[in-house]
Design brief:
The chain has 500 residues and is α/β, with parallel strands linked by helices. The protein has three domains: 1-117, Orthogonal Bundle (Arc Repressor Mutant, subunit A), CATH 1.10.10.10; 128-138 and 381-484, Aspartate Aminotransferase, domain 1; 141-377, Type I PLP-dependent aspartate aminotransferase-like (Major domain) (Aspartate Aminotransferase, domain 2, 3-Layer(aba) Sandwich). It has helices at residues 27-34, 44-57, 70-77, 81-93, 141-156, 167-179, 195-206, 221-229, 244-255, 276-288, 347-361, 366-377, 379-404, 428-435, 466-484; strands spanning 97-100, 104-107, 128-129, 189-192, 212-217, 233-238, 259-262, 292-296, 324-329, 341-344, 418-422, 440-441, 457-461. The strands form four sheets. A seven-stranded mixed β-sheet has the order 4-10-9-8-7-5-6, sandwiched between helices. Strand 5 (212-217), helix 8 (221-229) and strand 6 (233-238) form a beta-alpha-beta unit. The longest helix is centred in the last third of the chain and has 26 residues, at 379-404.
């Protein structure tokens, strides 16, 4: 993630971003990412080993990256060279690094792992994934799939190509926006292969390689990966404890950013919800700087409040239709396996995005679109079921954390899928590394930011059923005891019947 040091304090200092192929990472950059290796109960070499393994596992340190010389890294970390030598040796022995005399040491991934993909892995017996917020499908989805299959016969008489997306689907998406307070025609909708695909298309439409795009800091990791793949420079802007509608426009003025990627509905990972006044100020102030707002509404349907106003989509507040591009999808409200999303944009942007999609994909899959039609026809019932379950699970996770880990603090969000926890110490990476020994998969706080930021944070989804959350928090407490205090415990044996 490329960053810029400006005189506005909300913009993060320049630090290392992505490294690819056989390019090396400097000692200063790696030390910044690893943090203080003296933190926790483990010896420094083991903490360093674990930190590098986590960096490789989540893609911040791509396979093939050459590690810095042992002496240089030791100086930056303020440890002995023996400590770094031992860490590099353990990485090689465990399959996380290779070395060749005279060529140095470079990181690798053990067999079967995929480099830098922010998505849940295969389900493993006894392992609880707390790294991703991916709820199971609603009970009605299998019925809706069968109904969609019945619709397929009518489509099979044609050629099946339609880069604009099925009219029936675009009508329903447009009607949903209209019902939420922003009149929308079907031609304003471009159907995509999921919300992330929609973000990719929006970025490609609005920014060229080398252009600057603002992102909230912290933010959704995959969105930053999309920006990097597009060759644009992501500019993280600190938003915690600040007014987003103030800090983002100021950063836009200082960086001449072409676009800004934001989540105004239960931001990932903080859970912050912007009201209508804040949305209006944000859109108008960014527009005055010539910055187009890309609004990610993936969580917009996940409002867990039992009362309160329903805020308008950001598109309703834009000064002009060209000042905002909205993306959305069905993965969170329905199911992650339903890779169906959309872009809502002004007529010119929508037409160009549709042409861009046609060049790369020709047309979205027909069957998925038919399923999406059925899902949107049943959306009120699906949403009621999803919201009720998430509200109960959120409250359950809050109770369990307050009982088992009372030193951790967080703001209970009004919606979305996760808690953003303050651990009170810079141990996020260490917890993530130790968690694997206890059948837990965690996402370290720095994965949601740039460099060494958020080493004291952990994002915890409340998408699992209550019994699984209870077991997950119990394991978290054991991991925390190992890392920061309490009795050193043995790893929790996998629970064979617990498959999540």
């Amino acid at each position: 993630m490329a960053c810029f040091l400006l005189d506005w304090p909300g913009v993060i200092e320049p630090i290392g971003g992505k490294w690819t192929g056989l390019d090396g990472i400097g000692a200063t950059q790696l030390a910044e990412l690893c943090g203080d290796v003296h933190t926790g109960r483990d010896p420094a070499y083991r903490t360093l080993t674990d930190a590098i393994r986590v960096l490789v596992s989540d893609g911040r340190l791509p396979a093939g990256t050459r590690l810095p010389a042992e002496r240089a890294l030791a100086e930056r970390l303020r440890v002995s060279r023996v400590t770094v030598t031992r860490a590099y040796r353990d990485l090689r022995e465990d399959g996380w690094a290779d070395a060749r005399q005279g060529a140095g040491t470079w990181v690798r991934l053990p067999g079967g792992r995929v480099d830098g993909v922010w998505a849940p892995g295969p389900r493993r017996s006894g392992v609880i994934d707390l790294a991703h917020g991916a709820p199971a499908a609603p009970d009605v989805l299998s019925t809706l799939v069968r109904r969609a299959a019945d619709r397929l016969d009518a489509e099979l008489t044609g050629h099946g190509y339609g880069p604009e997306g099925l009219l029936a689907l675009r009508e329903r998406i447009a009607a949903r926006y209209t019902a939420r307070g922003v009149p929308t025609e079907p031609d304003a909708i471009v159907v995509t292969g999921g919300a992330l695909h929609a973000i990719h298309l929006a970025v490609a439409e609005l920014a060229l390689a080398g252009d600057r795009v603002l992102v909230e800091h912290p933010t959704y990791p995959s969105a930053v990966d999309v920006l990097a793949d597009a060759g644009v420079q992501a500019v993280p802007v600190a938003v915690e404890g600040a007014d987003v509608e103030t800090v983002l426009p100021r950063a836009a003025r200082q960086t001449a950013a072409r676009a800004a990627y934001v989540m105004t509905d239960f931001q990932n990972p903080t859970g912050v919800l912007l009201d209508d006044d804040a949305r209006a100020r944000l859109l108008h102030r960014l527009a005055r700087q010539g910055t187009v707002t890309i609004v990610d509404e993936t969580f917009a349907e996940l409002d867990l409040r039992s009362s309160g106003p329903a805020f308008l989509p950001c598109a309703a507040h834009a000064p002009r239709e060209a000042d905002v591009v909205t993306v959305g999808g069905l993965s969170k409200i329905a199911w992650g396996g339903l890779r169906l999303g959309w872009v809502r944009a002004g007529s010119e942007h929508a037409a160009r995005i549709r042409r861009r999609l046609a060049r790369s994909q020709i047309a979205p899959p027909v069957m998925e679109q038919l399923i999406a039609v059925e899902v949107l026809d049943a959306i009120d019932g699906i949403r009621a079921e999803r919201v009720a379950a998430l509200r109960a699970r959120r409250d359950h996770l809050v109770r369990e954390l307050r009982r088992e880990l009372p030193d951790w603090t967080f703001t209970v969000p009004d919606g979305g899928l996760m808690l953003w926890c303050d651990l009170g110490a810079e141990v996020s990476t260490a917890l993530t590394a130790h968690a694997a020994r206890h059948g837990l998969v965690l996402a370290p706080g720095p994965r949601f930011g740039a460099g060494h930021a958020f080493t004291d944070r952990l994002r915890l989804p409340f998408t699992h059923p209550e019994p699984v959350l209870t077991e997950a928090v119990r394991r978290l407490r054991r991991v925390s005891d190992e890392v920061v205090g309490g009795a050193v415990t043995r790893a929790t044996p996998p629970v064979g019947e617990l498959v999540v």
